[in-house]
Design a protein that fits this description.
alpha+beta; 7-stranded antiparallel beta sheet; elongated; 139 residues; 7 strands
């Protein structure tokens, strides 16, 4: 089981204290740390969710939801003790307690996966999502 190893990079991006919320120079200093971004399972970290703060990884393909790939996603979720909640896009949530561990966004020109960094199986889940949603299932 592997948690995401991007924690220090993410921490360096976040506002350290609310006192610095209006400090432009502190913001510019934090953005300098974005020059190099980590990868996990061969996927680039492209940023963080604006509201959720979860690291976001770009999939190397777009996703169009079908009966086939949503069923495959549900089976994958079950392998990780999760269920799928379908909102604007699918969220994988733990059966025990409902904590969100992943979300797959498909409503842009590329697909992304948001992952809870402290989830014990985050890297394995990302690898399996990459396989499960990849061709030929995504179209």
């Amino acid at each position: 089981m592997t948690k995401l190893t991007v924690g220090p990079w993410i921490a360096a991006q976040k506002l350290p204290t609310h006192d610095l919320a209006r400090d432009r120079l502190a913001f510019l200093e934090r953005t300098q740390r974005r020059g190099t971004t980590p990868t996990v399972a061969g996927l680039p970290l492209v940023g963080m969710g604006g509201s959720c703060g979860k690291p976001c990884f770009a999939l190397p393909y777009t996703v169009t939801w079908t009966q086939t790939n949503t069923l495959a996603l549900e089976h994958l979720a079950a392998d990780f003790g999760c269920f799928v909640e379908y909102g604007i896009y699918p969220h994988l949530k733990l059966q025990d307690g409902g904590q969100e561990v992943a979300a797959v966004q498909d409503w842009s020109t590329f697909a992304t996966v948001y992952l809870r960094p402290g989830y014990e199986q985050a890297e394995e889940l990302l690898e399996r999502l990459l396989e499960t949603l990849g061709a030929p299932l995504h179209g």
